[in-house]
Specification:
The complex is a heterodimer of chains A (1068) and B (249).
Chain A: H1 3-12, H2 17-32, H3 45-52, H4 57-74, H5 86-92, H6 96-103, H7 118-125, H8 183-190, H9 193-213, H10 222-232, E1 239-243, H11 261-268, E2 279-284, H12 286-305, H13 309-321, H14 332-357, H15 376-390, H16 395-404, H17 409-412, H18 416-427, H19 434-451, H20 456-469, H21 476-485, H22 489-492, H23 497-508, H24 513-525, H25 530-539, H26 542-547, H27 549-558, H28 566-579, H29 587-598, H30 604-621, H31 624-638, H32 648-661, H33 665-670, H34 674-678, H35 684-701, H36 709-724, H37 732-747, H38 755-768, H39 773-793, H40 800-816, H41 823-839, H42 843-856, E3 863-866, E4 869-872, H43 874-888, H44 901-912, H45 921-936, H46 951-955, H47 959-982, H48 989-1006, H49 1012-1027, H50 1033-1047, H51 1054-1060
Antiparallel strand pairs in A: 1-2, 3-4
Helix pairs in contact in A: 1-40, 2-42, 3-4, 5-44, 10-14, 12-13, 12-14, 13-14, 13-16, 14-15, 14-16, 16-19, 18-19, 18-20, 19-20, 19-23, 20-23, 23-25, 25-28, 27-28, 28-30, 29-30, 30-31, 30-32, 32-35, 35-36, 35-37, 36-37, 37-39, 38-39, 38-40, 39-40, 39-41, 40-41, 41-42, 41-43, 42-44, 43-45, 45-47, 45-48, ...
Chain B: E1 16-18, E2 61-62, E3 67-68, E4 70-76, E5 85-91, E6 93-95, E7 107-111, E8 128-134, E9 138-140, E10 145-154, E11 158-173, E12 176-191, E13 199-204, E14 215-216, E15 220-232, E16 236-247
Parallel strand pairs in B: 1-6, 9-16
Antiparallel strand pairs in B: 2-3, 4-5, 7-8, 8-10, 10-13, 11-12, 11-15, 14-15, 15-16
Classes of the chains: A mainly alpha (1068), B mainly beta (249).
Subcellular location (chain A): Endosome
Protein name (chain A): VPS35 endosomal protein-sorting factor-like
Biased composition (Low complexity) (chain A): 156-174, 192-201
């Protein structure tokens, strides 16, 4: 359906309300599709005459209704325009014929509504207002707290603390219980200031001491590094795991003459963990490798759990041996991560086991225990572990395994760890391969920081030892190895970074500035220090780096081209500058110097990795001009050969950084190169991701509604991109998310008083987002809101122009709703929009909505899908209908369709609907209809819509109208009774009883019991409810009590007599 | 159901110290004849180790030629109808610490192609210079062997440097001496081509089961040596030997 049609139609509305009314109806009919095109021609001549007249719709309507009523009395006409089935027709075809049929053998009961005086009832329900004297008790009265002013014997120098809050009116009600003095101020008053001071002093000292030995949250833990390393150091080459689990006889070529074969085997048994099995797993992919290592980790845990401690140790030894293997060197950092995980597991298991041995029946070892508290068995076990590990033949496993249980030294002696750390540090000097050795150092620093962070000396020693061996990287052994593996130096050197960064980070943690300066100086002295420089920048405090940015740029420039890649250095510097600000005066120069180098990078990958980081710095300190320049440079670099295709993550990250800094979207979109930058995201999934990011930021930061055409254009485009990505395969969650984002945008668009512009925006939005149901729903709500806003502005009195506009809004909703899929969404929106139309005096349009809703009801399926689960729909339908009835009360009758045509039509639909076999919902609905009809027969209705005359004023309590109304009631009652009769079977007796009682209550509430037959019916129902002993006696007693109470009210005397006729069943 | 007999030594993983007392092979009666209640019965026992005649109670030692072993045997004599039960169990004897203080005996060493013996063609050897020292060759058995080693220069890449602990047993018999050297521990202290001029620590813990204080009796000797083994690429093997004297202090 073309959305423009509806709007155009509405705007076309003519000058004559009645004429346009008719035309409107016809258009609506055709637009709605489901409405009958022709409405039954009334037989009434008077109505004919009136139809051609040109008079204000309201008065026209009223007269027409009255006349229609007269007409109906003489010549009732058939409304069954759509030819419904038999029973449905019964309700609509009036006259005596019907009566006999419906009630069958049952006596016919007439309906007489009780007269209600709503005003008086409301007044009588209200609580009486009693003025409250000052000083009287009242739970909600503000309480004032009287401050306790204990005079302190103030010591010299102590300040008197009688700081008291003045008794304010907003006070915690809890304090009222406390007799005016709250316990905290009492405590403060009695506390000895000197003692408190001493206490805080000692606790501060203690804290300081602990500061030294406990790592704070500002120390980035290893756990956060591991993922990054695993993701960055990958390989496509085949890997192998070689676990020498068999005996190494004849394999170890060390011609040790003096060794007897027997002893040798015995020693080597320590090295195997499954006798005679030697596993060499070749040709593993990286993922296989990771899985194998994980299996080993698991088998370590299993072995430990099944008390095979020696096997566990063997597994750990074999795993650490893998760290001496540097084939496929690019993978080494990741291998280190995987294997040290196993070592960590082992270290923890051993520590926990020994710790648990210290626990005897009496006491548990405290966390900070001393070796004296450890019993001999635990010590002996611990010592055994160390002896076993000390006899591991190979250096690397011996180092790693001992380091992994470093913490266990605590069981043996106080100085154990402080003696062990330097020894292990020295031991690493024996590792010839510089890469293997630097990772060993990193592991030792890691364990050291965890177990004894105060032992900084060893950390420093590791750093200085590393500097001593730094020259090895350029030695023959390493170079030969690189040639063999075909690895270039610029990709080899970054392999050191994770380990070095970690060591540097450990050292620089809470380190004095002087140490950092010294470290930097020592790095400077070494040739080709780019690697060191990079780690300094990665690990040192960002502030330290940022303040020396210019120095660093100088140093980077001096670095040797052939070694460590320069773009990584600039990247590291950029990362620091994103965290800490350089001196104000240097900022522009830093950017210029850095970008001069970055822009020269030839490889797009290197370039974008660098640029990604520096965008943050640019956004932080510069204006949109500089940002635009930077974005332009990125576009220039990434466009040739479609290089952007390989760098979506980085480009996405650039966008995220830019939008994170420009919360003002009018500024953002005025960044010249922002939109061209977006054009680089040509892969749809990425494009949609970027759009989502933009919209999320918009929704989060846009405070005020906007009509800025730049924002609107850009964001409409962004939203359209998101919307257009929806296809048949899109997941529900994704759709929900997209709809949420688009709705967030729609809600933020406002043209202020320019309502027409607003509506045309909604028209445009509808054409753009037609595939997302929640967006359409939002649009309908928005348009309804717009109509109500208009009404508010006009204070309810529409001008010709606003009336036309409001009708345009209504038309918008009317033609949009049918395109929704959700049946209840449609029903509720029809109802809601109908209410809005009614409120805006668009009566015929309101009728159309309600008719549409009525004609939709037969389509409600038995089961509907709610959050992916199929549920019965009846309860939802019941809820909707009750809501609908409440609205129908105030909808004025259509002049041409006879009395209560909507209600009749709705009843017909309810009648025809296929209800669940064993449900009483239909009768519940009929009961509600009875309530509605009772309310309709009142002289003045309970509520009204401003400027709309409901049936009460239209008919003015005309007796014929009441008679029609009562006839309908009779029919409905007959239906209820019929249903009650069908329940007279064993299995349904309980239902019969409760329905009977509920009907009884309805009659009691709404019926006039002075009428004898109604009175008789209620007595019958009372008996029915109790007949089979299904009734709840307490409810019956309460009901009876209520009747008696009501009978004492004025004009209710007849209930006294009724009460006498209602016996309570005695249980036998 | 069968009856079983078991000996449990308190602190099973603990080494036992015993003074040089004389006599071995002593028997004590643990319980007088009678009847055990059903279930598990534990009987504590304790007795001094007395050495026979003028013999010496040596430390427990498991070697190739020489074995010094101590066992406990428990016999349960039972009535005619039931078999007697027997159980044996080894226990370990450590001699009491020797009196007096150990005098440290540091050794410096330098290894070059020139210092080597048993070289066929000295000219074919790559040039190298390895210096180092052992802090003492008189060692306390419970303390590690320590020292330092520096590869000052080496033409060939180094593959590995190891410490080899060797035990030498000598037995006297009618035909003369029988001498057997056994590697009892091998500890790698350097792996790969280590950095030149950077000292690598020498550190070795003596294994508890295979070492004992150096022993010299009329019938046999148990002695220890350490070899520093340097493996170069191209399969050159350089060994430097240092005799050790172990004692318990």
């Amino acid at each position: 359906m073309a959305p423009a049609d509806g709007a155009a139609w509405a705007l076309r509305e003519g000058a004559c309300p009645s004429q346009s009314w008719r035309r409107g109806r016809c258009s609506l009919g055709s637009a709605g599709g489901s409405l009958p095109l022709t409405i039954m021609a009334p037989t009434d001549g008077a109505a004919w005459a009136l139809r051609s007249g040109a008079c204000p719709s309201q008065s026209w309507r009223r007269r027409a209704a009255r006349r229609g009523l007269c007409g109906r009395a003489t010549a009732p006409h058939n409304h069954g325009g759509r030819g419904r089935a038999g029973p449905g027709r019964e309700l609509r075809t009036g006259g005596p014929r019907r009566r006999g049929h419906v009630t069958g053998k049952m006596a016919v009961f007439p309906w007489h509504s009780r007269h209600r005086n709503y005003k008086a009832e409301f007044a009588s329900c209200r609580l009486e207002a009693v003025p409250l004297e000052f000083g009287d008790y009242h739970p909600l009265k503000p309480i004032t707290v009287t401050e306790s002013k204990t005079k302190k014997v103030s010591r010299k120098g102590s300040t008197s603390s009688t700081s008291s809050s003045s008794s304010s009116s907003v006070v915690d009600p809890l304090s009222s219980v406390l007799d005016g003095t709250d316990p905290l101020s009492m405590f403060a008053a009695t506390a000895d200031p000197a003692a408190t001071a001493a206490a805080t002093d000692s606790s501060r000292k203690k804290r300081e001491r602990e500061d030294n030995s406990i790592i704070g949250s500002d120390f980035e833990p290893w756990a956060s590094k591991r993922g990054e390393i695993l993701a960055r150091y990958t390989t496509t080459e085949k890997l192998s795991i070689n676990l020498f689990m068999g005996s190494e006889k004849g394999k170890a070529g060390t011609a040790t003459s003096a060794m007897s074969e027997k002893v040798r085997t015995r020693l080597e048994e320590l090295d195997d963990f499954e006798e005679g099995s030697q596993k060499e797993l070749l040709n593993l992919t990286q993922q296989d490798y990771v899985n194998r290592i994980e299996e080993l980790n698991q088998s370590l845990k299993d072995a430990w759990a099944s008390d095979q401690k020696v096997k566990a140790l063997k597994i750990v030894i074999q795993c650490s041996k893998l760290l001496s293997d540097t084939s496929v060197i690019q993978f080494y950092p990741s291998k280190f991560v995987l294997i040290t995980d196993i070592l960590d597991t082992f270290g923890k298991l051993v520590y926990e086991r020994i710790f648990s041995m210290c626990v005897d029946n009496r006491s548990v070892l405290p966390d900070h225990f001393s070796p004296e508290n450890v019993n001999d068995t635990a010590k002996e076990t611990c010592l055994n572990w160390f002896f076993k590990i000390a006899s591991i033949r190979e250096l690397i496993p011996r180092f790693y395994v001992e380091a992994s249980i470093l913490k266990c030294n605590k069981f043996l002696s106080k100085t154990g760890i402080s003696e062990c750390l330097p020894r292990l540090t020295c031991m690493i000097r024996g590792i010839g391969d510089p890469l293997v050795s630097v990772y060993a150092r990193a592991y030792l620093c890691r364990v050291g920081m965890e177990v004894a962070p105060h032992l900084k000396e060893s950390l420093n020693k590791n750093f200085f030892d590393f500097l001593l061996t730094f020259k090895q990287i350029h030695g023959d052994t390493v170079q030969n190895q690189l040639v063999v593996q075909g690895v270039e130096l610029p990709s080899y050197l970054p392999l050191y970074s994770p380990a070095m960064d970690w060591i540097f980070q450990c050292i620089s943690y809470h380190a004095p500035e002087t140490l950092l300066t010294e470290m930097m100086e020592r790095c400077k002295k070494l040739g080709n220090n780019a690697l060191l420089l990079n780690s300094v920048m990665s690990a040192f405090r960002a502030e330290f780096i940022a303040t020396r940015s210019m120095d660093f740029i100088g140093m980077i420039k001096e670095c040797d081209e052939s070694g460590f890649p320069k773009h990584l250095l600039f990247r590291s510097l950029g990362l620091n500058l994103a965290l800490a600000d350089p001196p104000e005066s240097d900022r522009l120069q830093i950017l210029n110097e850095a970008w001069k180098v970055i822009t020269k990078l030839k490889n797009p990958q290197d370039y974008v990795n660098c640029a990604e980081v520096w965008v943050e710095y640019t956004c932080k300190h510069f204006t949109k001009r500089e940002v635009s320049t930077v974005l332009a440079d990125v576009i220039k670099h990434m466009t040739p050969d479609r290089a952007f295709e390989d760098s979506y993550p980085q480009l996405q990250s650039i966008i995220k950084k830019v939008i994170a800094h420009f919360h003002d979207f009018s500024v953002l979109f005025s960044v010249e190169k922002f939109l061209p930058f977006l054009d680089m995201f040509q892969k749809e999934s990425v494009r949609v991701e970027v759009c989502k990011c933009i919209m999320e930021v918009f929704i989060k930061h846009q405070q005020e509604p906007t009509k800025d055409p730049v924002i609107l254009n850009a964001l409409l485009h962004v939203c359209k991109t998101m919307h257009d990505s929806v296809n048949a395969l899109t997941l529900e969650d994704e759709k929900r998310m997209l709809a949420y984002l688009i709705n967030g945008f729609i809600k933020m668009v406002s043209f202020g008083r320019d309502f027409e512009q607003q509506l045309s925006f909604y028209v445009e939005a509808r054409s753009m987002f037609c595939n997302l149901e929640p967006v359409l729903v939002q649009l309908i709500h928005s348009v309804n809101r717009l109509a109500m806003e208009t009404r508010k502005v006009m204070k309810g009195n529409h001008s010709r122009k606003t009336a036309a506009f409001v009708r345009a809004c209504v038309a918008y909703c009317f033609i949009t709703i049918p395109s929704l899929v959700g049946i209840f969404a449609r029903l509720n929106l029809y109802l809601h929009s109908g209410q809005v139309a009614l409120a805006n005096q668009c009566l015929s349009q309101a009728d159309a909505f309600f008719k549409a809703a009525i004609s939709l009801i037969p389509e409600v399926p038995k089961m509907i899908n709610i959050d992916g689960k199929m549920r019965p729909s009846e309860s939802f339908l019941l809820e909707f209908l009750c809501n609908f009835f409440s609205t129908l009360l105030i909808v004025p009758d259509h002049p041409e369709h006879g009395v209560l045509s909507l209600v009749r039509e709705l009843l017909g639909v309810i009648q025809d609907y296929t209800w669940e076999d064993n449900s009483d919902d239909k009768v519940r609905i009929y009961t509600c209809v009875l309530h509605l009809l009772s309310a309709m027969s009142q002289e003045t209705y309970l509520y009204h819509v401003d400027k709309v005359d409901s049936n009460d004023s239209l008919y003015g309590g005309d007796s014929k109208f009441l008679a029609e109304n009562n006839k309908l009631c009779e029919t409905v009652m007959a239906q209820i009774l019929e249903h009650l009769k069908t329940l007279a079977k064993d299995e349904a007796l309980k239902r019969q009883s409760s329905l009977g009682l509920s009907f009884f209550n309805s009659i009691l509430a709404h019926g006039d019991l002075r009428n004898n037959r109604l009175n008789q019916l209620s007595v019958n129902l009372w008996h029915l409810a109790q007949r089979h002993g299904c009734a709840d006696t307490r409810t019956m007693v309460k009901t009876l009590e209520y009747i008696k109470k009501r009978s004492r009210q004025p004009d209710m005397g007849h209930l006294t007599e009724l009460a006498l006729r209602l016996p309570l069943q005695t249980r036998t | 159901m069968g009856t079983s007999l078991d000996i449990k030594i308190k602190r099973a993983n603990k080494v036992y110290h015993a003074g040089p007392i004389q006599i071995i092979n002593s028997t004590i009666e643990m319980v007088k004849p009678g009847k055990f209640p059903p279930g598990k019965t534990e009987i504590p026992f304790e007795f001094p180790l007395h050495v026979k005649g003028n013999k010496v109670l040596y430390e427990t030692y498991h070697g190739v030629f020489v074995n010094i072993q101590y066992t406990l045997r428990c016999d349960m004599k039972r009535s005619l109808l039931a078999k007697d039960l027997t159980k044996t169990c080894e226990f370990i004897v450590h001699s009491a610490p020797q009196k007096g203080k150990l005098t440290p005996s540091p050794v410096d060493f330098t290894i070059t192609p020139e210092t080597l013996q048993n070289v066929k063609e000295r000219a074919l050897l790559p040039k190298f210079l390895i210096r180092g020292h052992l802090n003492s060759t008189n060692c306390v058995i419970t303390q590690p062997l320590t020292g330092e080693l520096v590869v000052e220069s080496s033409e060939a890449a180094i593959r590995s440097i190891e410490l080899q602990l060797v035990r030498v047993e000598t037995c006297g018999c009618a035909e003369g001496y029988a001498r057997d050297a056994t590697e009892i521990q091998n500890i790698q202290i350097a792996d790969g081509d280590v950095c030149r001029s950077l000292s690598v620590p020498i550190y070795m813990v003596f294994p508890r089961l295979f070492t004992c204080p150096t022993l010299e009796t009329t019938n046999f000797k148990v002695e220890f040596e350490v070899n520093i083994v340097v493996l170069l690429h191209a399969d050159h093997l350089i060994t430097e030997n240092f005799p050790l004297k172990l004692c318990r202090v």
